[in-house]
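Key idea: predict the complex, not the pieces.
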Amino acid sequence: MNKKTTIYDIAREAGVSTATVTRVVRKDPHVKEATRLKVQQVIDAHAYSPSISAQNLEGGRSRTLAIVLPVISNLYFNRIFDAAWWEAEKNGCSLRLFQTMENQAISPEIVSELIRCRMDGVLFAGSIWSEDRGDLNTALEKLGKYMPVATICPPDVSLDCICIQSDLVNCSRLPVRHLHTLGHRRIAFLGGSMHSKDTSRRGVGFLEQLRMMDLPDDPAYHVDAGYDMESGERAVLRMLSGLDRNRWPTAIVTFNDLVALGVMKQLKKMGLTLPEDMAIIGCDNQFFCAYTDPALTSVDLHPEEMAQSAVRELLLARESSSRSFAMVREATLIVRESCGVHLGFRKL
Amino acid sequence: MNKKTTIYDIAREAGVSTATVTRVVRKDPHVKEATRLKVQQVIDAHAYSPSISAQNLEGGRSRTLAIVLPVISNLYFNRIFDAAWWEAEKNGCSLRLFQTMENQAISPEIVSELIRCRMDGVLFAGSIWSEDRGDLNTALEKLGKYMPVATICPPDVSLDCICIQSDLVNCSRLPVRHLHTLGHRRIAFLGGSMHSKDTSRRGVGFLEQLRMMDLPDDPAYHVDAGYDMESGERAVLRMLSGLDRNRWPTAIVTFNDLVALGVMKQLKKMGLTLPEDMAIIGCDNQFFCAYTDPALTSVDLHPEEMAQSAVRELLLARESSSRSFAMVREATLIVRESCGVHLGFRKL
DNA sequence: ATTATTTTTGTTATCGGTAACATTTTTCTT
DNA sequence: AAGAAAAATGTTACCGATAACAAAAATAAT
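Result:
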């Protein structure tokens, strides 16, 4: 295993001082062309490039951003991470991942690791199902003393930080309005913990929207479902089997596209035809939405754009100390086939 | 923005030398209990923890592994990354991502960055559609001089490194055998570049398997498809529209599950009923396979396990300099509904 | 009580770069 | 050609932690 060549090796071999080597590396114009050439030659010969640790130590920064999220294997967070990564890359920064698992708060270990590493900033991408907002705020507050902090979160976090959120009002309103236009009146919502106080803003917004449109908000239409396909299957089964057929909803809005996947599977298993017997709207507009049968209408929250903005703002915040920034990204309804519009469906 | 407390601050405030602080932090037993307590108190008061850069500089290592892959948003690589991340984490290491895009070779920039960072090891997860094996090998060879290297790749790379690969023989054999057992004789393969020399080992293995079983390997059954859903749609349309109905294959094996998704959509659009009119087998056993309609039979290559082993071996290789390790992970066929077995289908 | 041991603590060079400042060399004026 | 100004290069302290070694303090042995 080779030992890495250092600036001293280069300086010695080129017969100059380390300062000159640094100048050449940094493309400092105050170097005679002859020296520059000689030094560059030695540099090339050894494929020398300065040690990151040494640079970081001396400079006091790491040119690295941290992103803290529950799990990268979750498609939503995967998209956020990916977008953040490229944006960081574009600005000469690297991005280091920290996963919290379901445990949404940022553990003290992560906090101290972030400080230890002299991160240039943290992007916290929490999820809508977060609970321990107290712990989270404490952690973010502490981090804020050392580096710029940005959050892509539901709108609970009232911290002095770069705060980016989805437009959950529209995220709830769009599907309900769409279904209402199509003549649906009995609309169910599956996912999240509907009746828990501080979770599932999306569900709450959904309920408000129902009331605003004078639609029935029968509690039987709001089932606590999880966030994945299996939960979707179970939830829809639980909901429908507790209801007389004539009281069944005619449309189901799900917490996300995965739940929708489960719901669709279960409905087909029960012998229903989609979208004839039930309209479905998911959320997140995942890549597979166009390939379900029927193709799934979904709400796009544009996580990529949010991540991009977050990273951009974090990098700006490094320079200027004024770092308050807030943004709400509008949601978009992507209409496909799962409500039957393409067939001209309209409930009476 | 707080300045980070250093070991000097702690030493001064506790009235000891920095060496003692280090001892306390490192839980060195050669410290009087009274001093230990006093120092610990100051440490806690300031939430002090040693700077990573300084530690890395002094120690000459980074406790960081690098993973180089095409794109993290690709589900296959996402799974590899995720598994590698947790395995690294479990061993007190962090994992830094490098994305190469379609450009499969490791750019010189990435190579030098890896050396600059004194990575403890690199895991290269290439894809089956890699081309520039020459460049790649050069890069890996160079890296090998500085750190342990592991690859999760098709079996081209003949380098002195930790070499982990999928069992592409079985990956091709399993679906063909399965279909053969079900009575299929005209089996098509969609995906990869079938007739290119150095790509798509999977397709090549597939062809060999067909011949071994005395099944027709009509060139019309092997269409160059891409690696995503759109390509799948187009490819199957191209293949079938060029063929008399009675020469249509009765089963299609695809390069991966995404292609399968596209194929299924296109077939339905053409009015076929699945799995009655066409059997389909995908590859990768992605999460959505159980939720397509019909549920997609697929081959699992167990990327997670490969990633885990790779990381484990990389970490071992840090210590012992003997670092040759090879492993081939068997593939597994996950039977679902897309070949109709659950309905007792059997071609005659 | 004195010396020998052991335990605890401090001193200092080092890791690899950077940049302020000092010094030397070159070029330009007059 | 002498002195001033500009350009090129070198010296050195510092970033924050670590560990080998030295030194001091505490304990044990005689």
